[in-house]
Specification:
- The protein is mainly alpha-helical and 69 residues long.
- 74% of the residues lie in helices and 0% in strands.
- It is globular and about 25 Å long.
- InterPro entries: DUF3791 (IPR024269).
């Protein structure tokens, strides 16, 4: 398993836990908005910052389709 995949799973599960949303629902929403690959590919940015920064960016992506940075 790659570091990117490990981090993606961590981000997905932690986001779902912290937002009190079932993990499957979060993944489904990301899939419906075609964001899974985009979030996965942003590993280099997300893994070097606070996880809450990744949350903010993911939420912005869900609303606008664009990254905050």
């Amino acid at each position: 398993m790659t570091d990117e995949l490990k981090f993606f799973i961590l981000l997905l599960e932690k986001y779902a836990y912290d937002k009190n949303i079932p993990t499957a629902d979060v993944l489904r929403e990301w899939e419906e908005k075609n964001l899974v690959q985009e979030i996965y590919d942003y590993y280099e940015v997300y893994h070097t910052e606070r996880i809450e920064n990744a949350y903010e960016d993911v939420e912005h992506l869900m609303k606008t389709g664009k990254h905050l940075w």
